[in-house]
Structures are given as structure tokens and as C-alpha cells.
Specification:
CATH class of the largest domain: Alpha Beta
Number of strands: 16
Distance between the termini: 47 Å
Shape: globular
CATH architecture of the largest domain: 2-Layer Sandwich
Strand content: 25-35%
Order of helices and strands: EEEHEHEEEEHEEEEHEEEEH
CATH topology of the largest domain: Mago nashi protein
Radius of gyration: 21 Å
Number of domains: 2
Oligomer: single chain
């Protein structure tokens, strides 16, 4: 039976990080059910193979001593349509994922319709990460992602910010005391580019620069100058220029 978005009423996403070493290695099961209209999420997230690591080794990587997380409750139904659209366009494969990956199980009226392996692993893994982030925001475990940007041209200083609300798939752009909602996909692509280059924290400042240039704060309170404190990793991909272009387009709208 081929399920379309009109017939299946839920999905189960299961992920294993595979050969990734601890403390990063983890598994999760995320069940999503909208059979009654609203979205209900059931998440079980577990970090694996940490038994042989010292507390210091775990903490030094930016983790805590208990990063496992369980959640069962509502999630904004705005996520239903993107899940349906991704499912419908996905090509499936019979290849095994022994070294880690994600599987998708559609549900029809609560009935398991069989495990599927998406060919485009990255797209489904990103979707799952977005959904988990949405859960974290919903329960106030984490705040929305906010990136601040400053453009200095001559005597003109332009400050703006982009706040990504995963909980309801809204992105708010603020400039000169005004705010507007912008396209989700545009913002997510821009955020991916923002986190692509190398950030040199030894050059970071606690305040944005006032000399000609562009400056960015990725939400941790440290300002980096594009082209100096933020540099491209891959010479074939000019992420720094793309960051400038993305924010300049938002500023000029």
C-alpha cells in the first residue's frame, strides 16, 4: 500500500548516530501522531557509550552529565504539512544503515505501516533535529535561536536581528524598532550558512564594532567581524559573503 499525506496520520522517526564517538553518540525515537487533528509528540533521546568517559571529558565537550531527555505532549500542528510534504517527495532505499542513520515509519490510524529508509538521510535528520528543537522550545528547555547583525557603512550603523522560533516555525526579523515575519526556508538556509565558517573566539568582542564592516553575534553574546574573526573553511564556498548578502537583502526589503 502506498500512503499519501491524506492517508497516514503519524510518523515514527528513529535515529542512531552509528560510528560517532561518545559523548556525541546517541539514539532517539520520535513518534508524531496527528490522527485527532492536533500534533502529539513522544520523544525518547539517549546518549550512548559514556560509561568509559570521565565527567571532565563529557563536560569539556559542552555536554552535561545527563543529556538524556524524554517528552510526551503537544507540538504545534504547523509541523504536520512540512512532514507530509517531505514524506511525499522522499525516495526510499533498500540499503542498510549499519553505520548510523534515520528510519521513517508511517502510521495509519495508529497502525505501523513498516519501516522505510530514506535515500536523503540528511534532509530527514535535519527535520528531526528541527522537531526536537521545537520540543525544547515548547517546554522552555531552550530559548529560540537569535542572531544579531550589524552593518557599518561610513557613518551609518544598521543593527538588526533574526529570531528563529522552531516551536511554531516562525522567523522574526527586527530592525529599527520594527519587526516582520520572514520566509522559514530562507531563514533556515541563512542560518545554515551562518554556522558554516570558522569563528575565531580569540578575536571576538563583547560589543559590536563601529568601524566599517559587518559584525555578527550568534546568540552567545560575542561579536565577530566577518572576514577577520569569521573566515571561510572551504575556499570553494564563500560563506562569509553569503552571510553578508543574506542579511543585506533582509535590511534592504
Amino acid at each position: 500500500m502506498t500512503l499519501t499525506k491524506s492517508t497516514f496520520t503519524g510518523l515514527v522517526l528513529e535515529y542512531d548516530s552509528g560510528i560517532v564517538p561518545p559523548p556525541y553518540s546517541h539514539v532517539f525515537r520520535l513518534a508524531l501522531d496527528w490522527s485527532k487533528g492536533d500534533m502529539i509528540a513522544d520523544l525518547v533521546l539517549h546518549y550512548t557509550e559514556r560509561e568509559d568517559l570521565s565527567e571532565e571529558e563529557i563536560l569539556d565537550e559542552g555536554f552535561t552529565l545527563n543529556d538524556d531527555y524524554n517528552y510526551q505532549g503537544p507540538l504545534n500542528s504547523v509541523w504536520i504539512k512540512p512532514l507530509q510534504q517531505l514524506y511525499e517527495k522522499t525516495r526510499w532505499t533498500n540499503k542498510d544503515i549499519e553505520e548510523g542513520g534515520i528510519t521513517v515509519t508511517p502510521l495509519e490510524k495508529g497502525k505501523d505501516e513498516g519501516v522505510k529508509i530514506p535515500s536523503d538521510q540528511e534532509e530527514w535528520q535535519l527535520m528531526a533535529q528541527d522537531l526536537i528543537q521545537a520540543i525544547y522550545e515548547t517546554v522552555k528547555k531552550e530559548a529560540p535561536l537569535k542572531v544579531n547583525y550589524r552593518s557599518v557603512q561610513g557613518d551609518e550603523i544598521i543593527d538588526c536581528s533574526l529570531t528563529v522560533h522552531f516551536s511554531n516555525r516562525e522567523v522574526i526579523f527586527e530592525i529599527a524598532g520594527k519587526s516582520r515575519q520572514i520566509n522559514w526556508e530562507y531563514a533556515i538556509q541563512l542560518m545554515k550558512i551562518v554556522f558554516t565558517p570558522d569563528y575565531h573566539y580569540e578575536l571576538a568582542k563583547e560589543e559590536a564594532g563601529k568601524k566599517r564592516g559587518a559584525y555578527i553575534d550568534c546568540g552567545d553574546g560575542f561579536w565577530h567581524e566577518l572576514g577577520k574573526g569569521v573566515v571561510n573553511i572551504d575556499p570553494s564556498f564563500d560563506a562569509v559573503s553569503k552571510i553578508r548578502k543574506g542579511f543585506d537583502e533582509l535590511i534592504s526589503e
